[in-house]
Design goal:
Strand order of the largest sheet: 7-6-5-1-8-13-14-16
Helix content: 25-40%
Shape: globular
Strand content: 25-35%
Number of domains: 2
């Protein structure tokens, strides 16, 4: 009788351990007024908080493996901040570092956390955000409760446009670096007379992961859309852009309570924005376009969620690796010429013209290492694969991964930041995203090597 009792106890414990759980939380990462706003060639200063910035966190637990997603309202976040946050979580509860995926939304109206353009981060704000991200993860894990999970997608094609355009021969001016061979122009102007055709496709799919309590009450929804950002905020405004607006709207449309966490991540949008260069763009008041895009995407996702069958449990797994990538470092002669160009600024050390801005980038890149280590990661939820790439990934790369490994989606700007990631074909075409700077410094074949690395991870997760 004693052995039978022990057997019954063991079975009950095993069943409890295998129970699928989920938890979500947000933490406030809004910077102080007067702090730096990056996302442009000139630095901005925060003068008004339109909506609070958040780090939105989702934790999943299948009884054996725990996974965490963090999407933070920021233009870009360097690896140091993410690594510091992961280490704090690991020290607190032992969650392996590789089981956490953290990324930035790429909203251009947030506090500066990485030195880009002429914006410099405040070290105190960097430490604050690292701590707040770690706190958010720990809160999400503390909120783990029995749950159901499902995934699906919707299509919103009318809010994404390729921003790189082929132009009539002889109409593209020299770049700020003096290159005269560009064959495409980024953001060429609405209905520009020299437009020929877009230089690439778009991805209209909005992928999502939906998590519900066992009674069907929404806990969280993590979406992914390949749209750079929307913009159109007020001057000096801090805002989470459409990423934050979507998070609010999807909760309302799903009839969720105040504890619900809506999350929008940035897909492969390095060459995608919200401007129809052939069809025009109606004038809108500040935040007008943000509201339109967020509403359209949220409505499409909310409708698609209704058709998703949420499973009582799905197996979780993760694979991660580091790859070394080369950098396009300027030559000593290029650096010397750049220093002379910088001297022409009447507002030195601030640069005035685009030529001066890129000259400064050349000088700064001269001190970069020849190679950099880049983290690649895939989280698997049932049959769904979620890839993480530490760059502003071109849409062609995401589409290729979807073609090879459906169902899948890619979160850009994840776990580190290494600038734009064009394909070799787009490097040959030139254009803003290829101009050498701290926002675009990886070797021409970097995307090829990253895809090869991800393929190794896909194979490991089979």
């Amino acid at each position: 009788m004693k052995s039978l009792l022990l057997a019954i106890v063991w079975v009950v414990k095993a069943a409890h351990a295998a129970e699928f759980r989920a938890g979500a939380a947000t933490t406030n990462i809004t910077p102080e007024l007067g702090s730096s706003i990056n996302g442009g060639f000139q630095d901005g200063k925060a003068a008004f908080i339109h909506d609070e910035l958040q780090a939105r966190c989702l934790a999943l637990d299948d009884g054996q493996t725990k996974l965490v997603f963090v999407i933070a309202d920021s233009c870009v976040i360097g690896r140091g901040i993410f690594d510091e946050a992961k280490k704090m979580v690991n020290a607190a509860n032992g969650l392996p570092l590789e089981n956490m995926m953290m990324s930035a939304t790429h909203a251009h109206s947030c506090g500066t956390l990485q030195a880009v353009g002429q914006s410099e981060p405040d070290p105190m704000y960097q430490r604050f955000v690292a701590r707040r991200i770690a706190d958010g993860v720990r809160c999400a894990m503390n909120n783990l409760a029995p749950a159901k999970i499902g995934f699906g997608s919707a299509s919103v094609p009318h809010q994404v446009f390729n921003r790189r355009w082929k132009m009539k021969p002889g109409t593209i001016p020299a770049t700020p670096l003096g290159v005269t061979t560009d064959q495409v122009k980024t953001n060429p102007g609405i209905n520009h007379p020299d437009l020929v055709e877009p230089a690439g496709p778009t991805d209209p799919e909005v992928s999502f992961i939906s998590v519900q309590a066992v009674d069907g009450k929404p806990i969280a929804l993590l979406a992914n859309y390949s749209l750079h950002y929307v913009g159109g905020v007020g001057p000096g405004h801090i805002s989470a852009d459409y990423f934050g607006a979507f998070a609010v709207k999807i909760g309302r449309l799903l009839g969720a309570g105040p504890e619900f966490v809506g999350i929008m991540s940035n897909g492969t949008s390095g060459d995608i924005n919200n401007i129809d260069f052939r069809g025009g763009l109606a004038k809108a008041a500040p935040y007008g376009r943000i509201e339109i895009v967020a509403n359209d995407v949220a409505q499409a996702v909310a409708a698609a969620v209704k058709a998703v069958k949420h499973a009582d449990s799905l197996p979780l797994s993760v694979a991660q690796m580091e790859i070394e990538l080369g950098l396009r470092i300027p030559t000593p002669n290029e650096v010397e010429k750049a220093r002379e160009v910088m001297k022409g600024s009447k507002l030195f050390p601030r640069m005035e013209t685009m030529e001066q801005v890129y000259a400064r980038e050349t000088v700064l890149l001269a001190d970069f290492p020849a190679r950099v280590s880049a983290p690649l990661q895939i989280m698997k939820i049932g049959d769904l694969h979620v890839s993480a790439i530490p760059a502003e990934v071109f849409v062609e790369i995401g589409l290729e991964l979807k073609k090879r490994h459906s169902p899948t989606f890619t979160i850009s700007l994840a776990n580190a930041y290494h600038g734009y990631l064009p394909t070799p074909e787009h490097h040959a075409l030139g254009g803003y995203e290829t101009w050498r700077a701290r926002s675009s410094y990886l070797e021409v074949d970097a995307s090829t090597r990253i895809i090869a690395g991800l393929e190794e991870l896909f194979a490991k997760l089979k």
